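User: I'm designing a mutation panel for Endolytic peptidoglycan transglycosylase RlpA and want to avoid disrupting the core. Could you give me a predicted structure to guide residue selection? Please restate the sequence first so the numbering is unambiguous.

Assistant: Good idea. Sequence first, for numbering, then the predicted structure tokens:
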Amino acid sequence: MSVRSILGAGPSAPRLVRGVLVLLLLALTVGCAGRDGRQVERASLPSGWHGEQGQASFYADRYHGRRTASGEAHDRNALTAAHRSLPFGTRVRVTRLDNGRETVVRINDRGPFVRGRIIDLSRRAAEELNMLGQGVAEVRLSPE
């Protein structure tokens, strides 16, 4: 059975088929986008990125539940972080330099936008690095 026989052989049938195909393609394209319509980046490190060193801070509790730049809600109990340029979904090893403690986080937000800071960690990640008391710690980021 052909599409023509289902829709009828009238002259508007090819236009109708084309319209249905366009709508189907549009629906598939929108399904690949984030909540706000932007394409969601997937985890792959930029070529040549081998890590960086600087200060880490962590989110204040008031940000729990607020939307991140990736569109998901910030969860202070998840191992997530904000970075200025690494793609969303990238997993990064964070090592605190003065005590050697490590954790692996997934990038899901943008920031921090404070000079000298290179990553903003969730509360859980900051706990794993034992930095809640200080608020800021010197860290090294490396590919996971």
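For picking mutation sites, this is relevant: The chain has two domains: 1-32, 52-143. The radius of gyration is 23 Å.
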